[in-house]
Structure formats: structure tokens, C-alpha cells
Amino acid sequence: MPKMTRFYAVGGPEVLRYEDVEVGDPGPGQVRLRQAAVALNFADTYFRTGLYPAPLPAGIGSDACGTVTAVGAGVTGFRPGDRVTYTGAHNTLGAYSTERLINASVLIRLPDAIGFETAAAITMRGLTAAYLMRRIHDFKAGDSILLHAAAGGVGLLVSQWAKLQGLQVIGTVSSQAKAEVAKAHGCDHTINYSHEDVAERVRAITDGQGVNVVFDSVGKDTFEGSLNSLKRRGLMVCVGTASGPIAPFNPQLLAMKGSLFLTRPASADYLADPADKAALASELFEHVAQGRIRVDISKRYELADAVQAHRDLEARKIIGSAIFTI
User: Fold this and answer.
1) Are 109 and 204 part of one and the same domain?
2) What's the pLDDT tens digit per position in 297-315?
3) How far apart are CA 304 and CA 317, in angstroms?
4) Preceding amide of 57 cis, omega within 30
5) Which residue, among 233, 199, 241, has the nearest Cα to 217 in the 3D structure?
6) For 171-184, what is each residue's pLDDT tens digit?
7) Fewest beta carbons less than 10 Å away: which of 98, 197, 202, 214?
8) Mean of pLDDT values over 32-53
9) Is the pLDDT confidence value at 28 over 80?
10) Is the pLDDT of residue 89 over 90?
11) Residues near 237 by Cβ (< 8 Å), separated by ≥ 6?
12) pLDDT at 244
């Protein structure tokens, strides 16, 4: 019988329940999907804790891949047997499942060269890296970036993509082991934020200039240091809030620190146009298929082990990408 992980109240990892479910036949515009692998993303914890509200009870996970087994009325772009992947947020919630119904409009056809486990590891992370590197800023060879959580799933992809564009990459990590992984994936310099002042080290590395762009997925704990790491008129990209939401601040602060720019991008906005989303996915898959971007899956969990997976995720025990296998 199909299985699904969901939660009936917000809270810690212990609220997650792995249960039998009825899936049924696809309705108009939907497909039934037999899933093969599911991504484990830090954003999943935002739904579980209520930071991202969802009607309860709710499924969890927004990013997975598998094979179409049935199509509903009006679906013309897919048929049974097609290999597909998807990512989203509220509109794809419920990915922690063995089978599910999903709107065909969110699906991305998966090239034969990309296996299911690789697809689960890179669809959200890779498309995030794609729009960060290709849509957020007009990068030029020689530009520099500061990349927080450089040994995380998104970080490892961003650093490799940045090197393809000729950028200098400075990555922050929490341990020597993570520093070695980050350097192996393209970081020119690493900073251990547990005992080094990030902004001071960035200034030293860049001869006092600072970086063109900061990608900050940590939030509250790193916000001020990130601003202090930017050169004049640099761009601060708030990608996530792993340490908690950023406290309210006076925009005058941006002027005081060098007429800085700040953005908080959402994938839903950068991937809203189907043609642009397809173009970014195609570029991502081509880089991976040709070996220009390497995908390392450091941890695999059974879908029934979501509680432990979330505990490991929040304890920062995962380096790179982690997935659920089915």
C-alpha cells in the first residue's frame, strides 16, 4: 500500500508520522507518480515547524522524482512510463511519499543521462544554484562571492557553477572536514565561522575590497557579517534563514555600509515562467551529464526514517546532499 509522511501539528521532528494512504486516480491536469527518490531539504523543516504555514494535517517535502503511471484528463505533455522530476513549495507539498497525485504543470522531463537519485539531489538545489548564478546578478569573470554553508547541498553546486563562470569563491564552513569538501568542489578559500571573523577574513583575502555578492542561507547569525563582507554597491542575497529570521533593521544601514543592495529571492518567482524554468533545468542537466558539475550524495535514508533525517539535518550532521530512497 502507498505510504506517506505527514504531520498533524507543528513542532520538532517527532511530529512526523509515516502512514498508509490511498492515492486514487489522477484528476484533470494531474498524473499519478510512482516515486523513486525524494530530496531532503532544510526548507522541509520550515513547514514542519510552522515557519512556512500549511493547512494541517499536511504532507511534507516538495522535491522528488519518479515514473508516471497514469494521466488525468487534459494532460498531453506526459504519458505512463515517462521519467520526471519536480520541485516547488506549497504547490508540490507531500513529496515524502511512495506514490502520489501531482499537477502535470510542475513536472520536468528527466533526461536519460540523469538517474533518479541524482535528480532527487539536484532538482531543487540545482535549480536554486541555476537561478542564483544565471539570474540574480550579471557576473563577470574575476568577480568574487562569499558563499555561506559552502559544504551544503546548494553550496557545493553553486561553488562549482561559479568556477565555471570564472569567479573567486570564498566559502564558510563549520569544520575542517567541511572545508576540505568545499575546496574539492571549487572554493578558493574557506573560512571556519566557528572561530574566525568572517568579514575580517574576507577583507584580508580580497585586499580590503570585499566581495561582489554574498549568498547567505544562514540568516540571523551571519547577516551583519555578510553585509560587512561586501564591497561598495555589493549585493546581499538572503537565500535562507537556517539560524532564524533576520531581525528588522533600518534600510539606512545599507547606505552606511556602502550603498548595498539586498534581495530575498524565492524560487517560485525565479522559476515561474515555464520556458525559463525549462532552460535553467536544461543547462543544469547538461552540466551534470557532462561532468562539469559533480553531484555527491553523502547520506541516504529510508522514507520511514524521516524523524532521524530531520534530526541530523538540524544538527548540521549532513555534508552535501541527502535523499530518501524508495
Assistant:
1) no
2) 989 999 999 999 999 999 8
3) 19
4) yes
5) 241
6) 999 889 999 999 99
7) 197
8) 94
9) yes
10) no
11) 132, 136, 137, 213, 214, 215, 216, 263, 265
12) 83
CATH of the domain at 210: 3.40.50.720
Q: Measure CA 204 to chain center.
A: 30
In a domain, 129, yes or no: no
Alpha carbon separation from 228 to 112, 213, 224, 285 (Å, rounded): 45, 11, 6, 35
Do 119 and 14 have their domain in common?
yes
pLDDT of 133 higher than 90:
yes
Helix, strand, or coil (residue 213): strand
Spatial CA neighbour of 132 closest among 23, 238, 290: 238
Cα torsion 17, 14, 89, 126: sign: negative
Going by pLDDT thresholds of 50, 70 and 90, the confidence category of residue 50 is very high
Can you read off the three cell numbers belonging to residue 323? 535523499
Same domain, 151 and 114: no
Which structural domain range is residue 65 located in? 3-124+268-325
Q: Which of 247, 264, 281 is the last residue of a domain?
A: 264
Average pLDDT of the chain is: 94
Class of residue 158 by CB neighbours under 10 A (exposed 0-12, middle 13-18, buried 19+): buried
SS3 category, 247: coil
Residue 213 has, within 13 A of its CA and on its CB side, a CA count of 23
Residues 277 and 250 in one domain: no
Could you give the CA distance from residue 322 to residue 313 in angstroms, rounded to a whole number?
9
**320 — pLDDT class (breaks 50, 70, 90):** confident
Question: How many beta carbons lie within 10 A of that of residue 29, not counting itself?
Answer: 14
Do 120 and 20 share a domain, yes or no? yes
Q: Which single residue is written with the C-alpha cell 504532507?
A: 59
Q: What is the DSSP string of 8-54?
A: SS-SSGGGEEEEE-------TTEEEEEEEEEEE-THHHHHHHTSS--
Are residue 119 and residue 143 in the same domain, yes or no? no
Domain presence at residue 130: no
Q: What percent of the chain has pLDDT over 70?
A: 100
pTM to 2 decimal places? 0.88
> Measuring CA to CA, which residue among 67, 84, 68 is closest to residue 31?
68
